[in-house]
Amino acid sequence: MIREIGVNELDKVHNIALDVWEKTYSSIISKEQIEFMFDKMYTLESLAEQMKSGHIFLIHETDEGINGFCSYCIEQNGVKIPKLYVSLTKQKKAIKTAKQLVASWSRTALAAAIAYYLATGDVTLKAYLARH
Fold this sequence. Notes:
It is built from six helices and four strands; from the N terminus they run E-H-H-H-E-E-E-H-H-H. It is an alpha+beta fold.
């Protein structure tokens, strides 16, 4: 199930991001840079501030736990998706999670945002979709 979360559940986003960031980015950027960026964007305080400023967080959840999350916000030129992560511990189900997230977005204005990111060369999203 995909659902919007409130500030009281931001720890779920924080925990997935912590797992993903360390394992994904450690081979390409320094531990210090990872910590700096993570502290800037994924502390509970930072996530709450993002939510306060209009970011909406969605999680994909099953009986087995949280599989992934995304955030989006409405901007003057459309919808922006600054965060899209799938838990690395659920790799075998990652494609299903991603497809469900995309299917959910396709029923909303977020489908346009995904098309925009793909068209403008969002490397992270393209690389993820190409692998799955």
